[in-house]
Specification:
- By secondary structure, the chain is mostly beta strands.
- It contains 4 helices and 15 strands.
- The strands form 2 sheets. Strands 1, 3, 4, 6, 11, 12, 13 and 15 form an 8-stranded antiparallel β-sheet that branches. A 7-stranded antiparallel β-sheet has the order 2-5-14-7-8-9-10.
- A hairpin with a 3-residue loop joins strand 9 and strand 10.
């Protein structure tokens, strides 16, 4: 448990006030102290290291600060996603909420890896965030291979046609299904739901969160800060054995406006 979770739990128990009163009342002195301590402790959660997740990392394979166009110059956008760089962050959205979009990291990563990035919601009204990983063509082609069909952000192009991958929806607050109660891991092609866990990023949260994705052989885990929301072992019953090396992409639905920074991927040691 990181300090944020410990303090947040302890403060609310100690003060014995409803959470909504603590966070919204301008006349409640404990509320001001609570918000300050939670904000400080929350920033400490973002400083978590790989060892905090009971996994041994080997080499840092890739990193991008995501704070400038130069830092993501080789990334590939599919669909009408727009990027803006400010205050050390990369904001991503679709102007006028036109269409969904997918942003591919240029590197191909090994089967076993740990990825981390930070993100913060800029539009609390609606949105949905997905990470694709271990992504290749059906015959293990690179996802950017010119022989594969063109893609423009339409969901079926990523989960039902010419690609195989895993994907996790870890923030889900769409107009048709607001504040969805679960995070989902699917194995593609086929949109096969293989695991459902507790909700990911809280739909009311406007603070920065660290996302940690770990694929260790057949074992897949995803954390929001220090909170485990996906924990599944691929037994090969869906679409054959565990997927191998492939690319990672960040997907947003058309209503979504998040900002991102500090994307990193490590390989894992052989003794995990």
């Amino acid at each position: 448990m990181c300090l944020f979770t410990f303090l947040a739990t302890g403060i609310f128990k100690f003060e014995n006030y409803p959470k909504t009163m603590q966070l919204t009342s301008p006349y409640n002195r404990p509320a001001k102290l609570t918000v300050f301590i939670m904000a400080f402790a929350g920033s400490l959660c973002l400083a978590q290291s790989p060892s905090d997740f009971s996994v041994k990392t080997d080499k840092l394979l890739y990193q991008s600060t995501m704070d400038s166009a130069a830092s993501v110059k080789d990334w590939v956008m599919e669909g009408p996603g727009h990027l803006k760089f400010a205050d050390g962050w990369m904001e991503m959205r679709s102007p006028n909420e036109e269409m969904h979009h997918v942003y591919w990291c240029p590197e191909t990563f090994p089967s076993d890896f740990m990825a981390q990035w930070e993100m913060q919601n800029q539009h609390l009204e609606a949105g949905l965030c997905i990470v694709f990983f271990a992504a290749t063509g059906l015959e293990s082609e690179d996802v950017m291979d010119s022989s594969l069909p063109k893609r423009d952000g339409v969901f079926s192009q990523y989960n039902n046609e010419a690609l195989k991958n895993y994907h996790i929806s870890y923030y889900a607050n769409t107009p048709k299904l607001p504040a969805r109660a679960v995070a989902r891991l699917r194995k593609n092609p086929g949109k096969n739901i293989v695991y459902e866990g507790p909700p990911g990023i809280n739909v009311e949260s406007d603070r920065a969160h660290k996302v940690t994705l770990i694929k260790n052989k057949a074992h897949i885990r995803l954390f929001i800060d220090d909170r485990l929301i996906i924990d599944w072992i691929d037994d090969g019953k869906v679409n054959g054995g565990p997927l191998d090396a492939g690319k990672i992409a960040l997907r947003q639905m058309q209503w979504t406006h998040f900002r991102y920074r500090n994307f990193k991927v490590w390989s894992l040691t052989s003794d995990n």
